[in-house]
């Protein structure tokens, strides 16, 4: 048995480390609590100089739908991480209360609301794409979507645009 250890590898986040790097984030959930992980990761990647693309599909479409993007909800029903009895999650008013509390917590740490966060990502060079299948299923067109969405594209087109990217599915 050997006790030798390999030397620690310390990443270099200089310009050479991010040159040519791409991140592709698939946003598939439209709940308030599931919108933020993708947005926060996209923002962090852009801050490090990483080319970043977000693809909104299925319920994630709510994040870029003009009618729903500012009204995302949070339901504690079935979410054990809320540390509240599951029976309470289905009571009238609980989703409203939980959504209000989460919005306040987000605002208290100066994180922008979803529409403003999307604009910040675009202003930082991020790319927003809508899923063709999800648009067709929901009978939505580009006119229904946030203005900064670059287009409604197929999953195959997204894969082509993000060739070689690190992929995150949220």
Tell me what you see in this structure:
There is one protein chain. With 170 residues, the protein is an alpha/beta fold. The chain is 34% helix and 14% strand. The protein is built from 6 helices and 5 strands. The protein has helices at 15-18, 32-47, 94-108, 114-123, 132-137, 155-161; strands at residues 22-27, 51-56, 127-131, 151-153, 166-169. It has a 5-stranded parallel beta sheet. Helix 2 (32-47) packs parallel to helix 4. The longest helix is centred in the N-terminal third of the chain and has 16 residues, at 32-47. The radius of gyration is 19 Å and the shape is globular. It starts with 14 loop residues before the first helix and ends with a strand.
Question: What distinguishing features does this structure have?
Answer:
single chain; 170 residues; alpha/beta; 5-stranded parallel sheet; 6 helices; globular
Strand-pairing-aware structural class: alpha/beta
Number of helices: 6
- Low-confidence runs: none
Q: Which percent bin holds the helix content?
A: 25-40%
How would you state the average pLDDT, rounded? 88
Amount of beta strand: 5-15%
* Quaternary class: single chain
Q: How far from one another are the termini? A: 42 Å
Number of strands: 5
């Amino acid at each position: 048995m050997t006790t030798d250890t390999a030397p620690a590898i310390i990443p270099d986040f200089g310009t050479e480390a991010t040159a040519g790097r791409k991140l592709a984030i698939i946003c598939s959930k439209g709940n308030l609590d599931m919108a933020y992980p993708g947005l926060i990761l996209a923002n962090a990647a852009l801050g490090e100089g990483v080319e970043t693309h977000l693809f909104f599909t299925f319920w994630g479409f709510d994040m870029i739908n003009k009618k729903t993007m500012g009204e995302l909800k949070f339901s504690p029903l079935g979410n054990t991480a809320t540390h509240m009895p599951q029976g309470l999650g289905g009571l009238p008013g609980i989703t409203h209360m939980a959504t209000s509390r989460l919005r306040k917590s987000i605002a208290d740490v100066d994180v922008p609301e979803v529409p403003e966060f999307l604009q910040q990502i675009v202003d930082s060079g991020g790319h927003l794409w809508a899923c063709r299948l999800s648009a067709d299923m929901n009978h939505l067109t580009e006119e229904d979507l946030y203005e900064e969405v670059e287009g409604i594209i197929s999953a195959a087109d997204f894969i082509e645009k993000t060739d070689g990217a690190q992929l995150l599915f949220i």
